[in-house]
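Q: How would the structure tokens look for this protein?
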Amino acid sequence: MGWNLNKNPMKDWEVALQAEKTMKPIPQLVEELGLTGDEVIPMGRRVAKIDFEMVTKRLAKKPDAKYIDVTAITPTPLGEGKTTSSMGLVEGLGKRGKKVIGAIRQPSMGPTFNIKGSAAGGGVSQCVPLTDFSLGLTGDFDCITNAHNLAMVALTSRMQHEYINTDEFLKNKKLKRLDIDHRQVEMKWVIDFCAQSLRDIVIGLGGKMDGFMMQSGFAITVSSEIMACLAVFNNLKDFRERMDRIVVAYNKKGEPVTTGDLEVGGAMTALMMRALNPNLVQTVEGQPVLVHAGPFANIAIGQSSIVADRVGLKLADYHVTESGFGADIGFEKFWNLKCRFSGLKPHCAVLVATIRALKMHGGGPKVVPGRPLDEAYSKENVKLVEKGCENLVHHINTIRKAGINPVVCINSFTADTKKEVAAVRKAAEKAGARCAYSEHWARGGDGALEFADAVVDACNDKSNFKFLYPETLPLEQRILKIAQEVYGAKDITFSDVARAKLDRYSKDPSTAKLGTCMVKTHLSVTHEPGVLGAPKGWTLPIRDILIFKGAGFLVPVAGAIKLMPGTASDPAYRRINVDVETGAVTGLF
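A: Here is the predicted structure in token form.
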């Protein structure tokens, strides 16, 4: 089917419904990938899972494909089409006759039902089936939610029995007293919605049979440490060991209490078993796409999983993976966490940019989700674009510090002009990056040929990949280095809470060398969402440091960002419905 949304406008869900009529049956996709029957786990008619351990073991001696990471400049609140560009690149490489696989993150139902919408991509450059993809897929997030909350059940139940039902507890000679300090509980409950009213709650209200009363709260599922474990684990044995290392609280002596201490890690792993294999879907144009792990690189690691990448690298000649939000957080975590944990080295990094976002960074009017864009974004303004390219160049420089020459993809919008595009090309090439203008949203692979060619060319460059810091660098110095080298800050500060935790973790040999997974806003290279461009000379405040010992990193939290987003006044769920005649879900975007 020849697509051109510029001539025949369609909404994303309308494109998806049309494409699903001719999408490849799973057996055909499996045959094209060269998979054997026992390596595939059917999950209905349109989706499957791939047994990653069987595939990687069988193909262990096969050379890896070219490894490509897709990230972006600092986005507007509307997003700049990173997943759309990932799918466009897969389609463009497919049009060039390359054997290619994509790996993207499963969307959270928080943004799907809120402002941002799903994360399937858009236009002709999206994955299908859209409804399955957007509304839970094969249940991986349900597994994570249940496993995480089971740990909280184990914790709160233990506290009730130790502190309230003490006599009965003491009769059980198999259990030792953990002396959990209710003021030092690290975990919260999770739910996969944006539910601001659950951020801070009190639990255990009622009588002695209703639990231990204390302050608690909810975070969004994607911020769970178990989601992070899903992104970075290597095999079942590794995952099982991680499930015992999760720190849920501290005792009254200041010692960690883990899921292993609560003897719940085995049950958590049992709940996660069906989530450990990557999901197989396809682009609108029929290229295979793996979906595994979750989004939100501002509050999580925000990467498609290591095991999905390993499968893609064995089954294709080009493997396109995705990192969340801008290069200051998504690419930085891909670079210094995911690649360090996996041992994999990328051949190319794509930096997605839009004229719209560059105008905003250049001083354009505020972009507000749910409101019409100011006419400044539909009229030519080369000076605004040129000023906004400071943000683009900042991210190019970040990627080049990893030893990679990036490809800037200008994700096209109908209002873009030739002069504006030329200004971006000039800035990108001057900063040492290749640049391609791509119309994949409107035309799919046919519109992404220049983009695909630039990536193929970049993959042939000599790689000088290197990490930003050594594993032995102390935590405080790591945070400072990330703040200075990636964000552009001059210095960092710590709250009293963060300083106390920094001292605790730095003195403990088991935590001192854990990876560093920063939490900060995605709407700015700083910790302040309203600060645009690429400012210098500011100070990054660290207000807390979380411990994700199972995942293998510490999580410094910068600024006022929260682990539970809120639902806006005009959420997407108002427009999602079901056609009662056909059963088709409408309104997803």
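The two ends are 21 Å apart (CA to CA).

The chain has a mean pLDDT of 95.

Upvote if useful.
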